[in-house]
Amino acid sequence: MEARRGAPGRQLCPPVITVLALTSLLSCLLASSEAKVYSRCELARVLHDFGLDGYRGYNLADWVCLAYFSSGFNTAAVDHEADGSTNNGIFQISSRKWCKNLSPQSSNQCQMYCSDLLNPNLKDTVICAMKIAQRPEGLGYWEAWRHHCQGKDLSDWVDGCEF
Question: In the β-sheet with 78-80, what is the strand arrangement from edge to edge?
Fold first, then answer.
């Protein structure tokens, strides 16, 4: 007896799905090959140079604390949620609202691909984070900041760093 095969002319996986899956895999591999884990002072200097010290009333220590508790200073950090969304980059910015991934439901308010948030130079990440900080809840948008940084003495996060 011969094993049954799929219906004649029918493919197991549609070509569009295959291309999307391969593109997604390739972007993950490329992003991880460029991954950077910043040191505390190195990140503080970069964020300072981007003008985040004092932005919307938050000092540099707030941003450094947020980055540590969001990603451990890792630019390639990606957290996959059960609903298919992702949290991306050093500030773990959500694809539900802020960036575009393979899910068409995203409102993409930062007008960028989520993979752009994994770049070690942080330009796109900082631009998007600044948009998020403009919201009424500011850095309170991030649960990591609310739980670990808000209302605390954060001076240790930038102590000893030179700008």
Answer: 78-80, 86-88, 93-94
